[in-house]
Amino acid sequence: MEPASPTTLLQGRFFQPRLPAFWLYVVIVGLTGIVAVGEQNLFREMSPAGWALSWALVVVYAAPVALLVYFLDLYEREPIPLLVAAFVWGAVAATTLSAIGNAGWALVVARLGGPDLATRWSAAITAPVVEETLKGLGVVLIVLIAREEMDDRMDGFVYGALCGLGFAVVEDVFYFLAVFGGDVRGVLEGFFVRVIASGLYSHVLYTGLVGMAIAIVATRRDRRPLAARVRSAIPLVVVAVVGHFLWNSPILDLFPAHPWEGAEWLLIPFATALKGLPLLIFVALAIGLAHRRERRWLREALEAEVDDAALTPQELATLESVRGRRRARLRMGRRAGDRAARLLGRLQREQVNLAMIRSKVATDDDPALVRQRALCRAIR
Question: Considering just the CA atoms, what is the radius of gyration of the chain in Å?
Fold first, then answer.
């Protein structure tokens, strides 16, 4: 068997025409994209100013959220093409297919429970399962396209959260124009309700948890049997679906009746926090545990490399903390200049890559591992 190179081990490409999963992704996004573009063109014709304002506002919301999600992965940033693919799947394929699925299942709910039940409960009964399944399918396709990039549960959270962000952006535009009226006042009202008051509790959290569950099953770093990993993943999916169900349901619904006046505007953030804050706290705890797991993995992967010229004990302690790595670069910059600080930053990245390679090769003398050690020694 030919040894893997560091490039093969560490870089996942989206464009992989030899893989059926790549073409399945392309075909589904291409077909649903025709529908999505048609819908956006319809909205643009209905209200050109409202449509333009809607997209401007959601970009202002989505850009910092995307950056936050990107930097949540402390040690290995995911390849930009794959992150864009996750976002596009959520924005195009998942939204279009979910609209079809939700409409079909809403008819089933209406026939079985009557129109009153469907009006109050169909969004809660159908959307969580339909939407999380379809968004999760996008994460699964990314795993099949670039399996080597799914190292641990934080990777899954990043891909899932960006898929959810893409879904939320397009859904927000739909609500601004189709539910809140589409004029400038309606768009601003919709932005306040769905982004300012609710933006912390949306699809980013739901699909982030689903992506984390998929990563638990798919990662090669977890040596447990598949059945044990599936058992660990199921509760995360359940929490995501239940959180989505609660958000869509009339349970704990303290929203004031529209139109809103005076203090009723202040009641809206309270009403959204009552429904969404528990899930946000749960996700924050899950991310904290995932970060702790990543730090433990880094230490275990690099302990055998300490005292080799590629890594010192002090550098290993520094690598475990994002803040510690930043402080080390600042100190180096003050002592020896910007060029030295940049070189230290490169050394830190390559030492993390050393851990990544070590966790993926079978022997200590694997050529890829030997080359990475030599690279770290040369930089030091």
Answer: 23
